[in-house]
Amino acid sequence: MDKTIKINLGGTLFQIDEEAFKMLRRYLHEIDSRLGKTQGGAETIEDIESRIAEIFQSQKGIGVITRENVEAMIALVGKPEDFDIGNDETRANEPSYHSTVHKKLYRNPEDTIISGVCGGIGAYLNVESVWIRILFVLFACFFLVGLLVYIALWIALPYARSDGQKMEMYGNSNINTPTHKTTNSSLSRRDFSYSASESGGSPAGNAVNEVFRAIGKVLFIILRIFLIIIGITFVITAFITLVTFIMIFFFNYPGYFSTDEFGINLFYLPDFLNYIVNPGVAPWILILTFIAVLMPMLALIYWGVRMIFWFKAKDGVVSLIGLVIWVGSLAALSFLLFSEGISYTETGRSVTNEVIENAPDELFILSGKKVTDLNYDKEISLHDEDYNIWFVDDNKGLYISSNFDVQNSDDNSVRLNIRKRSMGKSRTNAARKSEELIYNYRISGDTIILDEFFTVPSGRKWSVDEVHVQLYIPEGTVVHFDSATSDMFRHSEYHDWDSDSDDDRYIRSDRSWEMTDDGLRRLRDRSDNKE
Question: 3-state DSSP call for residue 355?
Fold first, then answer.
């Protein structure tokens, strides 16, 4: 198979066959060896190249430059010795021009099916690239070894883009390996030793290469479809996440954010943030959190668009700057969260006990201050509504629901146990915070009045504060609840409801209980058992 080569001569592209190419290259070598190091020689050589290009262009009807065309050109321009400058002794002392290039491994852009890895290896080893491709396919059948090695080389090997890199890829000028039918070459006085020539290969090798090329096109189409799907997924996911984040954390819309998996309902988290951290730090945490979320989402959108439209862009500097900003924001955010998180490292408690020596047969548990009496702006519910926080904007009030439970007493007395718990940077600090919690209750004869909530002192941060009210009564004591205290008892984390057939509405309306050796039992159940 006759091979053809594309060359750039005087700024014009020509097609030339192999024999003519070698002849033209030798001709220009010799001219360069005579004029290259003389004063004004570079300009003279450029003029000669331009003149050669004009001669080839003037040869009407020429398709591929042949040996005859080159010989005709030399007859017009002159032989290399016609350009001698100086005497023979000077020429004898001048070193001859010879270029020796050490080979380097590159991905070959002129012999590529997927990425040019096999073409680059073929050029480096001076063998037909089709055999390299066959070896990769064979090794890919053994636990995908060939595929993994190919991907590694794809990532590691640079692409031979410039003429200098291509010259390093092929080595010296005697090249006999590329397999494309027509290749591009740049022929100039500065790069005579390089030619991207093509031997054409054996017919069988060319046939196998065509098969590989067809498979490569199919794989490329599949890859493009896959990348388009991934890109669309990136863009949609990142856009929705970004819009949701902005709406929730900056525009307070929607007013309700729920995560059922963790049992958390959040209302206006940025507002509540002032109660968790120092007010001066809260805006910085919001800004840094926004940057930490914004940068990856923008990157996903950008890369998604690139996957969809498959374009190249010089984005290395911008990507590096974005990465530095993102890492810096994460570091600053981590530092702030760590410094604020120290306030939640230790747990402290305080306990208050009230004892009624002469236990009455019946107790009435009534509510004091109710949540319905509060004038609050926002609410947060945690742990499936077992832990509720009501707060007033601008850090003017923080109220938290209390837990209430009734247990069997070890003696005949009635005991009211108030347990307060907070978190702080030390146990002493946490215990002091727990003592500062404001919870109101009152005992009057057979009546115990309990508030539905407790109050965090004004100006103090939320410290995972809790108040547990436990009432210990002897066996046989009857307890009557009102609607509010019945709900407090129902939502207690210490009480496990066992209502096999009763619905929630019936339990709410049944407010009279009796203490037994197995715990509280509804009076209705006792009456049913007697019948």
Answer: strand
How many angstroms separate the first and last alpha carbons of the chain?
109
pLDDT tens-digit readout, 346-388: 999 999 988 887 778 888 999 888 888 888 877 777 765 678 8
Same domain, 279 and 357: no
Residue 389 domain-assigned (yes or no): yes
The answer to the question of residue 99 being in a domain is: no
d(CA 223, CA 151): 14
Which residues, in sequence order, are CB contacts of 36 under 8 Å at separation 6+? 42, 45, 97, 189
pLDDT digits (tens, 9 = 90+) for 325-338: 999 999 999 999 89
510 and 417 in one domain?
A: yes
Give a yes or no: residue 112 inside a domain.
Answer: no
Query: Could you tell me how many helices (H) and strands (E) the chain has, helices first?
Result: 16, 19
363: phi then psi, degrees, rounded to nearest 5: -120, 145
Residue 402 and residue 336 share a domain: no
CA neighbor of 6 nearest in space, from 180, 161, 169: 180
Exposed, middle or buried, 293 (CB in 10 Å: 0-12/13-18/19+)? middle
* Domain match, 378 and 475 both: yes
What is the per-residue pLDDT across 252-289, written as a single tens digit (0 to 9) for each?
555 444 444 444 444 456 667 777 888 788 889 888 98
Structure tokens at 156: 């590691």
Are 325 and 444 part of one and the same domain? Answer: no
Comparing CA positions, the residue from 113, 185, 214 lying closest to residue 154 is 113
Q: Has residue 279 been placed in a domain? A: yes
Residues 506 and 360 in one domain: yes
Q: Say which DSSP state 230 is in.
A: H
- Residue 478's φ and ψ, nearest 5 degrees, are -100, 135
User: What range defines the domain where residue 446 resides?
Assistant: 345-530
- Distance in angstroms (rounded) separating the CA atoms of residues 446 and 180: 102
